[in-house]
Amino acid sequence: MNKDLQSIVLTEEQIREKVTAAAAWLDERYKGKKPLAVSVLKGSVMFFCDLVRAMNTPVQIDFMTVSSYGASSESSGMPKIVMDLAASVKGRDVLLVEDIVDSGYTLQRMRDLLIGRGAQSFTVVALFDKPARRQVDVKADYACFEIGDEFIVGYGLDYAQQYRNLPYVGILKREIYEK
Ligand code: IMP
Ligand code: MG
Hints:
alpha/beta
Protein backbone atom coordinates (compact mmCIF):
# COMPACT_ATOMS: atom_id res chain seq x y z
CA MET A 1 0.00 0.00 0.00
CA ASN A 2 1.18 3.56 -0.75
CA LYS A 3 2.74 5.13 2.36
CA ASP A 4 0.46 8.21 2.22
CA LEU A 5 -2.65 6.07 2.67
CA GLN A 6 -4.31 5.26 5.95
CA SER A 7 -6.20 2.22 4.65
CA ILE A 8 -7.54 0.57 1.50
CA VAL A 9 -11.16 1.19 0.51
CA LEU A 10 -11.37 -0.98 -2.61
CA THR A 11 -8.78 -3.50 -3.78
CA GLU A 12 -8.25 -4.21 -7.50
CA GLU A 13 -10.40 -7.29 -7.20
CA GLN A 14 -13.21 -5.44 -5.41
CA ILE A 15 -13.11 -2.75 -8.11
CA ARG A 16 -13.50 -5.44 -10.77
CA GLU A 17 -16.57 -6.82 -9.00
CA LYS A 18 -18.15 -3.35 -8.75
CA VAL A 19 -17.46 -2.65 -12.42
CA THR A 20 -18.99 -5.96 -13.53
CA ALA A 21 -22.16 -5.31 -11.52
CA ALA A 22 -22.50 -1.73 -12.82
CA ALA A 23 -22.01 -2.91 -16.44
CA ALA A 24 -24.73 -5.55 -16.04
CA TRP A 25 -27.11 -2.93 -14.64
CA LEU A 26 -26.39 -0.64 -17.60
CA ASP A 27 -26.77 -3.40 -20.21
CA GLU A 28 -30.22 -4.10 -18.80
CA ARG A 29 -31.18 -0.42 -18.80
CA TYR A 30 -29.94 0.29 -22.32
CA LYS A 31 -31.36 -2.76 -24.14
CA GLY A 32 -31.80 -1.83 -27.83
CA LYS A 33 -30.21 1.60 -27.35
CA LYS A 34 -26.90 3.15 -28.33
CA PRO A 35 -25.95 5.50 -25.52
CA LEU A 36 -23.29 8.15 -25.58
CA ALA A 37 -21.01 7.39 -22.64
CA VAL A 38 -19.38 10.51 -21.26
CA SER A 39 -16.33 10.36 -19.02
CA VAL A 40 -15.98 13.27 -16.64
CA LEU A 41 -12.21 13.76 -16.66
CA LYS A 42 -9.85 13.34 -15.15
CA GLY A 43 -11.14 11.41 -12.14
CA SER A 44 -13.39 8.92 -13.93
CA VAL A 45 -10.89 7.83 -16.59
CA MET A 46 -9.90 4.45 -15.12
CA PHE A 47 -13.44 3.55 -14.09
CA PHE A 48 -14.80 4.69 -17.46
CA CYS A 49 -12.40 2.54 -19.52
CA ASP A 50 -13.09 -0.54 -17.41
CA LEU A 51 -16.85 0.08 -17.35
CA VAL A 52 -17.41 0.51 -21.10
CA ARG A 53 -15.28 -2.56 -21.81
CA ALA A 54 -17.36 -4.60 -19.37
CA MET A 55 -20.61 -3.54 -21.10
CA ASN A 56 -22.15 -5.49 -23.99
CA THR A 57 -24.22 -2.50 -25.13
CA PRO A 58 -22.69 -0.71 -28.14
CA VAL A 59 -21.69 2.70 -26.81
CA GLN A 60 -20.06 5.73 -28.29
CA ILE A 61 -17.63 7.49 -26.02
CA ASP A 62 -16.80 11.12 -25.37
CA PHE A 63 -14.95 13.17 -22.79
CA MET A 64 -15.40 16.32 -20.82
CA THR A 65 -12.89 17.85 -18.42
CA VAL A 66 -14.38 19.53 -15.38
CA SER A 67 -12.39 21.10 -12.61
CA SER A 68 -13.75 22.19 -9.24
CA TYR A 69 -10.93 21.71 -6.75
CA GLY A 70 -7.58 23.21 -7.65
CA ALA A 71 -5.11 21.94 -5.04
CA SER A 72 -7.57 21.45 -2.22
CA SER A 73 -9.78 18.75 -0.75
CA GLU A 74 -12.87 21.00 -0.86
CA SER A 75 -15.02 21.79 -3.90
CA SER A 76 -15.05 25.43 -5.00
CA GLY A 77 -18.78 25.13 -5.69
CA MET A 78 -18.27 26.43 -9.22
CA PRO A 79 -17.15 23.56 -11.45
CA LYS A 80 -15.42 24.84 -14.58
CA ILE A 81 -15.67 23.17 -17.99
CA VAL A 82 -12.04 22.95 -19.04
CA MET A 83 -12.69 20.83 -22.14
CA ASP A 84 -16.08 20.29 -23.74
CA LEU A 85 -17.54 17.27 -25.55
CA ALA A 86 -16.82 16.71 -29.24
CA ALA A 87 -20.23 15.10 -29.91
CA SER A 88 -23.68 16.66 -29.86
CA VAL A 89 -25.93 15.24 -27.13
CA LYS A 90 -29.16 16.34 -28.80
CA GLY A 91 -31.59 13.41 -28.81
CA ARG A 92 -28.98 11.09 -27.29
CA ASP A 93 -29.20 8.76 -24.33
CA VAL A 94 -26.38 10.16 -22.26
CA LEU A 95 -24.57 7.98 -19.76
CA LEU A 96 -22.49 10.18 -17.50
CA VAL A 97 -19.66 8.35 -15.74
CA GLU A 98 -18.34 10.01 -12.59
CA ASP A 99 -15.65 9.00 -10.15
CA ILE A 100 -17.45 10.34 -7.07
CA VAL A 101 -20.45 12.47 -6.16
CA ASP A 102 -19.43 14.66 -3.22
CA SER A 103 -21.06 18.11 -2.81
CA GLY A 104 -23.08 17.38 -5.96
CA TYR A 105 -22.17 20.66 -7.68
CA THR A 106 -20.40 18.93 -10.57
CA LEU A 107 -23.27 16.56 -11.20
CA GLN A 108 -25.84 19.35 -11.01
CA ARG A 109 -23.82 21.40 -13.49
CA MET A 110 -23.47 18.46 -15.92
CA ARG A 111 -27.14 17.54 -15.69
CA ASP A 112 -28.36 21.09 -16.34
CA LEU A 113 -25.91 21.55 -19.19
CA LEU A 114 -26.54 18.27 -21.02
CA ILE A 115 -30.31 18.25 -20.54
CA GLY A 116 -30.25 21.88 -21.65
CA ARG A 117 -28.49 20.79 -24.84
CA GLY A 118 -31.32 18.36 -25.59
CA ALA A 119 -30.16 14.98 -24.27
CA GLN A 120 -33.08 12.54 -24.53
CA SER A 121 -32.16 10.76 -21.33
CA PHE A 122 -29.55 11.30 -18.68
CA THR A 123 -28.20 8.49 -16.51
CA VAL A 124 -25.41 8.83 -13.99
CA VAL A 125 -23.15 6.06 -12.81
CA ALA A 126 -20.63 6.91 -10.11
CA LEU A 127 -17.97 4.71 -8.61
CA PHE A 128 -18.35 6.42 -5.23
CA ASP A 129 -21.05 8.34 -3.42
CA LYS A 130 -20.39 10.53 -0.34
CA PRO A 131 -23.99 11.33 0.67
CA ALA A 132 -23.06 13.03 3.96
CA ARG A 133 -21.32 15.83 2.05
CA ARG A 134 -24.13 16.72 -0.34
CA GLN A 135 -24.87 20.45 -0.79
CA VAL A 136 -27.40 20.19 -3.63
CA ASP A 137 -30.19 17.72 -4.25
CA VAL A 138 -28.71 15.39 -6.87
CA LYS A 139 -28.11 11.66 -6.91
CA ALA A 140 -26.37 9.11 -9.10
CA ASP A 141 -28.76 6.59 -10.66
CA TYR A 142 -26.24 3.91 -9.76
CA ALA A 143 -23.45 4.29 -7.24
CA CYS A 144 -21.03 1.38 -6.80
CA PHE A 145 -19.86 2.19 -3.31
CA GLU A 146 -20.92 4.54 -0.52
CA ILE A 147 -18.29 6.15 1.71
CA GLY A 148 -18.31 8.51 4.69
CA ASP A 149 -16.60 11.87 4.95
CA GLU A 150 -13.10 10.68 4.01
CA PHE A 151 -10.79 11.87 1.28
CA ILE A 152 -9.91 9.01 -1.03
CA VAL A 153 -7.37 8.63 -3.83
CA GLY A 154 -6.31 6.12 -6.47
CA TYR A 155 -7.86 4.50 -9.57
CA GLY A 156 -8.27 7.95 -11.16
CA LEU A 157 -8.95 9.94 -7.98
CA ASP A 158 -6.33 12.49 -7.03
CA TYR A 159 -5.14 14.86 -4.41
CA ALA A 160 -3.34 17.81 -6.08
CA GLN A 161 -2.99 15.66 -9.24
CA GLN A 162 -1.19 12.86 -7.40
CA TYR A 163 -2.09 9.19 -6.79
CA ARG A 164 -4.32 8.80 -9.87
CA ASN A 165 -2.40 5.78 -11.15
CA LEU A 166 -2.71 3.65 -8.02
CA PRO A 167 -4.62 0.54 -9.15
CA TYR A 168 -6.67 0.48 -5.91
CA VAL A 169 -8.51 3.12 -3.84
CA GLY A 170 -7.47 4.17 -0.35
CA ILE A 171 -8.11 6.82 2.30
CA LEU A 172 -5.48 9.56 2.23
CA LYS A 173 -3.86 10.30 5.59
CA ARG A 174 -5.24 13.57 6.96
CA GLU A 175 -1.75 14.94 7.61
CA ILE A 176 -1.18 15.00 3.82
CA TYR A 177 -4.01 17.45 3.09
CA GLU A 178 -4.39 19.25 6.42
CA LYS A 179 -0.97 20.88 6.28
P1 IMP B 1 -18.58 17.56 -6.23
O1 IMP B 1 -18.79 18.58 -7.30
O2 IMP B 1 -18.26 18.18 -4.90
O3 IMP B 1 -19.68 16.53 -6.13
O4 IMP B 1 -17.24 16.82 -6.51
C1 IMP B 1 -17.06 16.12 -7.58
C2 IMP B 1 -15.60 15.93 -7.87
O5 IMP B 1 -14.71 16.22 -6.80
C3 IMP B 1 -15.41 14.48 -8.14
O6 IMP B 1 -15.73 14.18 -9.47
C4 IMP B 1 -13.95 14.29 -7.82
O7 IMP B 1 -13.17 14.56 -8.96
C5 IMP B 1 -13.67 15.28 -6.73
N1 IMP B 1 -13.69 14.60 -5.40
C6 IMP B 1 -14.68 14.60 -4.48
N2 IMP B 1 -14.36 13.87 -3.41
C7 IMP B 1 -13.12 13.37 -3.65
C8 IMP B 1 -12.23 12.51 -2.90
O8 IMP B 1 -12.50 12.00 -1.80
N3 IMP B 1 -11.04 12.25 -3.51
C9 IMP B 1 -10.69 12.75 -4.72
N4 IMP B 1 -11.49 13.54 -5.45
C10 IMP B 1 -12.69 13.85 -4.91
MG1 MG C 1 -14.51 14.28 -11.07
